[in-house]
UniProtKB/TrEMBL annotation:
The lineage of its organism: Eukaryota, Viridiplantae, Streptophyta, Embryophyta, Tracheophyta. It comes from the Eukaryota. PANTHER family: BETA-ALANYL-DOPAMINE_CARCININE HYDROLASE, PEPTIDASE C45. This is Uncharacterized protein. It comes from Taxus chinensis (Chinese yew). InterPro entries: Peptidase_C45.
Amino acid sequence: MDDMNGEWLPLIEIGPCDSYQMGLLIGQRFAHLIRSRVSKDKILQEEMLPFAMSNDGHSLIEALSTTNRNKYPKYWDELFGTAEGSGVPFLQ
């Protein structure tokens, strides 16, 4: 169920593919929901993104990105594919 408005999310079936391709398909299918959620998230827009643009934010994002990309490469690829598919920047 979608926490934003209590509606059920549509089901998507994905056949065998790599992590990036799976994320891309998910991003394409749910692009409108992802973009809507990102645009309406006040904490993201007013606090997190401005911090991410700061020097401290850049340093933190770089460290977290490197660690997570190395430790969880398939999840990282899926997230990257989801961002690409939805048209939402992966890392700003």
